[in-house]
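User: Quick sanity check before I run a bigger batch. Here is a single chain. Can you write out its predicted 3D structure?
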Amino acid sequence: MDNIIELKGLKKAFDGNGVLKDINLTVKKGENVVVIGKSGAGKSVTIKCIVRMIDPDEGSVKVFGKEVQEMNDDELRELRIKTGFLFQSGALYDSMTVRENLAFPLERVLKIKDENEIEERSKEVLEAVGLSDAIDKMPADLSGGMRKRMGLARTIIVRPEIMLYDEPTTGLDTITSREISELIMKVHKQYKTTSIIITHDMACAKITADRIVVMEDGQLIAEGTYGDLQRSEDELIRAFFK
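Assistant: Done. Predicted structure follows.
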């Protein structure tokens, strides 16, 4: 398998506070890696370094074999098109309908002008996330779970090769969280994505992870399958599974 994402010796400090202390992580093509850890452990900062939303102080970030820090504007733009980033909020434009939210990245990012193609892609992703009937609704008319689904639809409409999920099930009830976790797997299979999923939700981790890595105080302290880590003799690691 090819290595799609390679992080080596990643360090980042804010105001003298070391948030990332020495992160080494490789994600292979088609792999789903779940990152767990307490708030403030550095999880979100790590994935933001992958698309250069944040620049590390030290270390190497390679995506598709290229050093991200050395990319010019065009290369960085291409990387960001290939990378879907699902934020906790879903990040929808509240003044636009679902249809307009979906058309926006196609027109602005991919420069697609063909209305038939925009319509076809919009219907395809809405069907994939189970929201076919919502195309003319406003975001305010959607429940929390529907907003998450819609955020995912807008992310996958540009057909990214990498998906970065930042707490995809936060704020959702148990049933809806499970639906979103299963939807992540459906997207993974349908679009053959390589994914990093940050979550506190161990049910989500169990459903989605090929491999789980544990972050503590800016470092990766363990990795393995859900079962491996659940059986760990380290109390700090086992505490996530209680």
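The mean pLDDT is 91.

User: Great, the batch can go ahead then.
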